[in-house]
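Assemble and predict.
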Amino acid sequence: MQKVVKNAKEAIQGIQDGMTLMLGGFGLCGIPENSLDALVDAGVKNLTCISNNAGIDNVGLGKLLRGQQVKKMISSYVGENKEFERQYLSGELEVDLIPQGTLAERIRAGGAGIPAFFVPAGYGTEVQGDKEVREFEGKPHILELGMRADFAIVKAWKGDTKGNLIFRHTANNFNNMMATAGIITIAEVEELVPAGELDPNQIHTPHIFIQRIFQGRNYVKQIEFATTSD
Amino acid sequence: MTLDKNGIAKRIAQELRDGYYVNLGIGIPTLVANYIPEGMDVTLHSENGLLGIGPFPTKDKVDADLINAGKQTVTFVEGASFFDSAESFGMIRGGHVDLTVLGAFEVTDQGDISSWKVPGKLVKGMGGAMDLVAAAKNIIVAMQHTDREGNSKLLKACTLPLTGVKCVKKIVTDLAVIEVNETGFKLVERAPGVSVDEILSKTAAPLAVDDDVPEMNL
């Protein structure tokens, strides 16, 4: 089966208005830049986006927000984005805030066929809501559900033509789990090599999880807070 | 004399032990890294997927693929490893991280903490704070004893939305080190030159005080 597609435009074929997308990255680190640009060009709307953060103004997911393409954000932290703030305060944008570890685990569980699980995070807070509470080893936990998406879009450092992925440094973050939780998963990579060239011992995401892959280009990799010692 | 931010960080660094895995939150907690005792093996965990955070990079070593949970550029130390967010929070939830240090708006004498949301202001999200406080084995809060208006941040009940309940074990402020135990707050140490009376007057919850409360040894 041919998984390699030419570019982001081809990769996002089938993404329609109203769909749920998972988008990898932490802040602006490890975000699928090419696919985000293609989604802006395609103009799909009413998207529900599952992503740890919402980009910053005009960068990353901020580009989709600027075009009012997002109906709902499911995230753990959404600061540093004025357009987001405006749409949220005016009620144009729905926001579901989830503790980061719970968000990560809901995605992992979704991809691993686990419909629900208990965690202690959020017990006794507004996150608990009307969720089922159960005590394990003397400690209260709340029931959280696994999560999947119509499309997951991830970004890796290296990938091969079968869809195996390797991430670099902290650019892995949510990408590895999201790859498992898309009904269709798109991977964009900085370097695409023929199958067999990546060391099987070093693969982070095995190709079973990937349906489409392409060589990305012109990565900007903007840094949110360049903090230096000199 | 009240402690400045670095003083608070320096006092918290005295809680570190050889072999500890530690998660430091944003703000004062990050400064604790500057006071790890020489020769002590302490590994810093970043919830976005790095075990073994190093110092901030020099300008020529800045790497967009290498950031901490505050989204600042960092470096990594020898023996470091990278992993995804689910595994990272597995380290926290599974009790593998020995100590978490984080900031707070309010802490109660039951160990409840508010740190993520002020109603009426823009809500940015809890990030990983709820996961950290719900699961870490040992949680130390680093904060000012009072807010800008002089109101105590140590209370009987939080007025702001909670981050977690019954989880904080110790609080280090500009005035004091306070333990949270079964019976409530207990004053353990005071900042150099700060009186027990001053601490009592700025703590809006019962505070157990022994006859002799030592000064911090900084």
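The helical segments of chain A are 8-11, 33-42, 61-66, 82-89, 100-111, 175-181.
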